[in-house]
Amino acid sequence: MKLQIIRGLADRQSHDLLEENFRLRHRVFVDMEGWEALRRPDGRDVDDFDNADATHLLMTDTAGKLVGGSRITPLDRPNLLQTVFNGLVHGELPAHPSLGADWTRFYVRPDRREGRRRAPESAALFCAVMEYALSQGLSYITFVSSIYMLEHGTAVGWRITPLGPPVISEGKPTVAAWIEVSEAALGAVRRATGWVTPMLPDGPWPAEHLPDRGLPV
């Protein structure tokens, strides 16, 4: 599998991959998970945070087919946690927002995860997110999810701290939390998943993929 890092639209191939990502997200989060507030007639899951600040980590297989993705948004710019889910945050962030990023829209293509407890695509994406955070000098990542995702992250050896008590959203207990970013956390997720192949492309990255201040902005 190969990790594609997209921030801005450098070429037609990146544009097409990002569009496929939006349609897959709609299939996963709206059609399968039932997030009706995200439903759009064009079948694309796109919100206010799919903008120039966002970095998309997209996983493709050997045939170039998109199999999963995630979105990373800097915490010192408008983000989903502090704009839409700010009511879930009851405590302080662990460090200045410039040292953190919000992790959203994690998914694996449905036909790649059905019937499997821990798909390799999921393992690769978990590792890729931690690798990327380390490469950007981040010290923590925030996220909003069901309790299951929090438990899954803890199971791979990550230090996860809730930012407030869970609330019922879409019929499920939902919580905001932060993950410590460290080499130890990367080693833990690699050991837990068995995915040891580095995911980040060899540097130097193209200029359009480089953050301006060492952060995914």
Automatic annotation (TrEMBL):
Top-level lineage group: Bacteria
Annotated signal peptide: none
Gene Ontology biological process terms in this record: quorum sensing; signal transduction
Keyword field: Autoinducer synthesis, Quorum sensing, S-adenosyl-L-methionine, Transferase
Pfam families per the UniProt record, alphabetical: Autoind_synth (PF00765)
Catalytic reaction(s) noted: a fatty acyl-[ACP] + S-adenosyl-L-methionine = an N-acyl-L-homoserine lactone + S-methyl-5'-thioadenosine + holo-[ACP] + H(+)
Alphabetized GO MF terms: N-acyl homoserine lactone synthase activity
Assigned EC number: 2.3.1.184
InterPro entries, A to Z: Acyl_CoA_acyltransferase, Autoind_synthase
Family recorded in the similarity comment: Belongs to the autoinducer synthase family.
Protein's name according to its UniProt entry: Acyl-homoserine-lactone synthase
Source organism of the structure: Devosia sediminis
